[in-house]
# Entry
Amino acid sequence: MALSPCVDAFILTLLCSNPILKGAFITSLSAVIISIDSEVSLLTSQLGRLNIINKILDLEIQLVQSVLNKVQADLDLILGPLQAFGDCPELARLNETLQNNAVSKVFSSFQKKIYEFNRISNLTIVQDAITKKKQQIRQEALDMIDRINILCP
# Structure
């Protein structure tokens, strides 16, 4: 990455004329690089973990969806005859109660899994962006150290 002319001016004006400041500056940049390396390593392992969790959640969502489909199919089969007598208030209430109770628990679980999946997906996106930004800062620090060593042999 190309550094701007003001960086060269800073290096030539302040660092080349003061070896102590130059050494301190390089040491500071090196510490930043080491810190970023450890942070990126940690973020990368967390991203891997989040990806694994997302894959597991995706399988769980598929399982819950298939259970929800099975429950609905069973309800359609069992409660279908009740619908023929939908004008009977007691049978209509029974039909509605059975459908709501059977589907709502599975559907609630389904919604929870999707929420968790989306939350982890969003965390993955944020962590990926943070990792890329830290890698960019690391590269800039490396470039600056290289430039210091070129301009101030």
Notes: DSSP finds three helices and no strands in the chain. Residues 19-83 form the longest helix (65 residues). Residues 5-151 form one domain.
